[in-house]
Prior knowledge:
This protein is mostly helical. The protein has 25 helices and no strands. It is globular and about 65 Å long. The protein starts with a helix and ends with a helix.
Amino acid sequence: MSNFLTLLKTFIKTTELTSAEKKRSKHFYKIMGTAVVLLIMIPAGLLVGIITYALTLGVMSYGGTTQGANVILHIISILSVIFGINVIINIFYFSNDIENLIPLPLKPREIVSAKFAYSLLSENIMEFILILGACAGFMCAHGFSATGIVASLIGILTVPIIPLAYCGIIAVIFMYFTHSVKNRDFLNKITGIGTAVLIVGSLVALVSVSGFNPEAIVSSLASADNGFLNVMNIIFPHIPLMMDSISSESVYQLLLYLLANVIFVAVFLFLASKMYIKGVSDINTTKSKRSKSIAGQAIEKSVQKDIFASYLKKEFLVLFRTPPFFMDCIAINLLWPVFMAVIMILQGSTNFLSGVLTPYLAGDRKSITIITVSAVVISALVTAINSIASSSISREGKHFQFMRYIPVGLRTQINAKALASIIISGSVMVLYVIAFNVYCAILATTFNPFVFIVTPLIHIALSLICVVFVTYLGIFLDTINPKLVWDDEINALRGNYNTVINAAIIIAITAAICTISLVLLWIFSVEPAIINLGLVIVMCVLAVAAQKVCLKKGVANLEQIES
C-alpha cells in the first residue's frame, strides 16, 4: 500500500505545472479555470441534470423508475470507454516513466494500480460533474433521501471505475498478444480508427432507438424489452445497481454496487499482474520506425523557396503526419457532419431539422437570420474545439527554442500557424455550408435564389471570418502558457487546457451573440438584413482585434518564455 500511495503521489506531482509555467501563468489559469467551470462544466452538468429529470418524469408516467437515469449513465460510461482506451494505453505503456519504473523492486500490480488510480483522478473530472448532474436530476424527479444522497455521492466518484477497468483490460490483453505491433504511431492510428468506429456505432445504436422520437423513447425505456438498455445493463451492471440503491434506499443494492466495482478492478489487476510486464517490455525493446520527429522530417522536406511557404508546409506536415494531431485536430472536424447525417438518415423525412427548415426554404427572413446565427455559432465552436490553433505553440514541445533562433520572425511563424488553421478549419466550414445547402435543395420544392445563392455566400463569408477570429484567439491563449513539456503528442493535446479555455470564451461570446440577435429579432422586430449586417461587422471587428492582439502581445509572450 505504501508503494501504491508513493507512486500515485509521484504521478500526480509530475502533471503539475513546472516552475517556469507557474511563473508564466500567474493568475491566468485561476481566472480561465473559473471561466471553464462556469461556462462549460456547470452548464454541461445542468444540461445532463435537466435531461435526466425529464426522462425520469417520462418513464415514471409509464410505470418505470430508474430507466431514464440508467440510459444517461450508460451513455456517459460508453463515452468513457471510447475516449479512455487511448489514454490508458499511453499512460500505461508509453509514458516516459516506464523505463525508470520497470527496474525498481515494484510489483506489476503496484505500478498498474497506481497508474489506474492516477488515470481515474486526472482524466474524469468532467465525468464526475456529468454523473453529479444525472444523480441530481433523478432525485429531483423521484425524491430525495438520506440513503439516496449517500449513494449518489459514492456513485459520483466510483461510476467511472468499471468503464476505466474495461479500458485497462482491453489494453493489457491487446498489448500482451500483439508482439509485432509496438510502435506508438501505429497504435495511435489503430486506436483512433477504433474510436471513430465505436462513436459512429454507438450513435447508430442510440438513434435507432425509436428514431429520437421523445415519446417513443420514453415508452421504450419504461418497457422491459428495451434492447439497448438490457444489453448495457449487462455490460455495465453497476449502473442499475447504483440507481436502484438510490431509488429504493437500499443499502443491500449499494453494497452489491461496490462489490461489482471491486470484482472488475480485481479482474483487471489480476490480468495486469500476469500480462503487463511482458507487454511493456516488448515496447521498450521495439522502437518506432520514425527515428526522427515529424517536425524534423518536415524541415528537411521544406525546400527553401519561400520562408513563409516553407514554414506553412512544415505546419501541414506536422498536423497531417502525426496520428494524434491528425485525429484530434483534423479528423474531428469530419465527425460532426457524419453524426448529423447518420441521425437524419435514420430518422428519415421526420428528422429534427425538417420542421425548422420549412420556413427557411420558403424564404422567411426570420428563419434565415436564425440559420445565419447558427452558422456563426457552429463555425466558432468547431474551430475552437478542434484545437489546431490553441495547441499551435504547445505542439512545438522541446523544439520550442527552434522558433526563437531560426531566421524567421515570430510574427511570420504565428501567421503561418494561423493560416494552417484557417485553411483547414475554413475548408471544413465551406464543406459544411455546401452539404447543408445540398440537403436543403433535396427538401425544397421550388428554387429561391436568395436562399440558395445569396444566403450561402453570406454563411461562407461569416464562417471564414469566425475561423480567423477563433484561430488568432486560440494562438494567443497558447502563447500565454503553452504546454511545452510532454511525453508524446497525445499528452501535448490532453494536457493542454488552452483548448478548453478557448472553447469557454467562444461559448460566452456566441451565447451573447445569439441572445442579442434573437432579442433584436423577436422583441424589437429589427430587420433581419440589419442583424445580418451587424453580425458581419461584429465578427470582422473581433477578427481584426484578435489578430492585432495575437501578433503584438503573443509575440511578446513568446519572447519572455524561458527554456
